[in-house]
Amino acid sequence: MANPINNAVRLSAEGSDTPILPAHIEDTVRAIAQLHAEHHRRATPVQRAVARMTSAIGRPRFVGVLTLAILTWIGLNLLLPAMGRVSFDPPPFAYLQDVGGLLSLYITSLILITQRHDEQLAEHRAQLTLELAIVTEQKNAKIIALLEEMRRDHPHLVDRVDEQATSMAQPADPQAVLDAIKDTHGDILTIHDTP
Hints:
- By secondary structure, the chain is mostly helical.
- Helix content is 78%, strand content 0%.
- The longest helix is centred in the middle third of the chain and has 60 residues, at 94-153.
């Protein structure tokens, strides 16, 4: 199977408008594509079938077909008595209401199943984003620490204490940040709940 990332890079090397991606961005794009591919590979046949049905229901064509079916149902039931025949669902169209209710139940179930499956992918992406944010924060802290060290050791720069840079050079403790967020949100909720 051809790798779309490598194809994009090859095409750009041949003079197309696609920019050449740096290796770290290419790796990130590939990792996200693999996350999506793995998520779809893990889907059961039932989940795939439900996703196809939900996709079909979500198209404007479905609304057109549904409207045509309802109008045909009503039209037939109004025309049959005029032609001397017995209508299979006379007004107020109780069978049509039953079919509509059952169809609504199935459509709702299909949407919920699809959302649940897609939510798993969203959770994986959120976890990846969180992990990358933590790593990026640690890298930034290391860069600041190295710059501060270079500033202190450089003979042509005045050595001074920069409290903010010293503070920023310390990587954040994820658990401490989480606790602070919980405390802050708890304080905000307490303020809003007070009459």
